[in-house]
Amino acid sequence: xxxxxxxxxxxxxxxxxxxxxxxxxxxxxxxxxxxxxxxxxxxxxxxxxxxxxxxxxxxxxxxxxxxxxxxxxxxxxxxxxxxxxxxxxxxxxxxxxxxxxxxxxxxxxxxxxxxxxxxxxxxxxxxxxxxxxxxxxxxxxxxxxxxxxxxxxxxxxxxxxxxxxxxxxxxxxxxxxxxxxxxxxxxxxxxxxxxxxxxxxxxxxxxxxxxxxxxxxxxxxxxxxxxxxxxxxxxxxxxxxxxxxxxxxxxxxxxxxxxxxxxxxxxxxxxxxxxxxxxxxxxxxxxxxxxxxxxxxxxxxxxxxxxxxxxxxxxxxxxxxxxxxxxxxxxxxxxxxxxxxxxxxxxxxxxxxxxxxxxxxxxxxxxxxxxxxxxxxxxxxxxxxxxxxxxxxxxxxxxxxxxxxxxxxxxxxxxxxxxxxxxxxxxxxxxxxx
Length: 434
Hints:
Blueprint: H1 9-39, H2 44-47, H3 49-98, H4 101-129, H5 133-161, H6 175-194, H7 207-210, H8 220-248, H9 261-286, H10 292-312, E1 317-323, E2 329-335, H11 336-348, H12 351-360, H13 367-376, H14 380-394, H15 400-403, H16 406-422
Antiparallel strand pairs: 1-2
């Protein structure tokens, strides 16, 4: 069973590269939604439909993706995912020419299928290459760091491509990002085609019939972990989505006069994603020494306190260091509520790897199929922000934005429960080896 460590270097690099692609395309949906909100004059909840379409595709494709991974292996599944992603982003690009909201939503939906397939491949593969446990968690955190870097870059680049403000933007303004995404997909397809990726050996014969009565859903800690992923992705996406809308709302003038509210709001949101990058780098550094359970417990508890503070503290102005693209770091004046929400990026940064690691621990041969179910629940990234924005629309006054964060409070409380109680494997009697 001895294998040369260097044999796994290239597959690890490829998987981390794909992790970045997931974030690049997914995070493009949020600023695109803001552009469409003003271009087509639609309410907040409709502005998040692109994000919803992208994530709801996970609910449809998640389980089939797990079966596909189990049947065709990592490499073929990744290649199909990349091809589908190219088509999805291509349709979104065409929506700019057609000036069609519906065409854009179709493209976002198809791109979501691709992101689901890629996530299904990347997470178990990195966990597997790291040998599971703390080392597997460390590799997932490293992949998450590159994921955050690409996610931060999209927000910043979008701001640079819209110099006249979000209210005057058109889909065509972000064509360069669309073309970049298409180029990334094309390049990745070539790289994956030429890369040797270790596959799980398939067992043929009567054994599979013997164990067919079991599956990932036979494990309580996996079921609760899948729910944890649902709420986690909603937390990760919902916090900056609503925060940016709150700060740049021209009717509320939250930031006061004399500033470009759209630019400042974009910088604040980008800083949230940048802190996720910082947190994931720290998580990768300590991942082999600190258990996923301890990490998830701490960040869930701290995130919960920060959210409650943001909701109930008076809107006192503070100077917040923000990452402002080509201008580097600088100070902007924002309500303390916004500063606390930005800091949650450090907490959400390492949640994905911790939850995935805990949920699949001890699943053995059921891991690949479990990953597909896991991906179906990623649709929370479209549902929870939609719920938050609906609360904003039906709540009178600007405080409706902060009121919507009750959704985040409930979600973080569940993650804390999962870390402390729900992640324990109480089904160790189920056979997990061939």
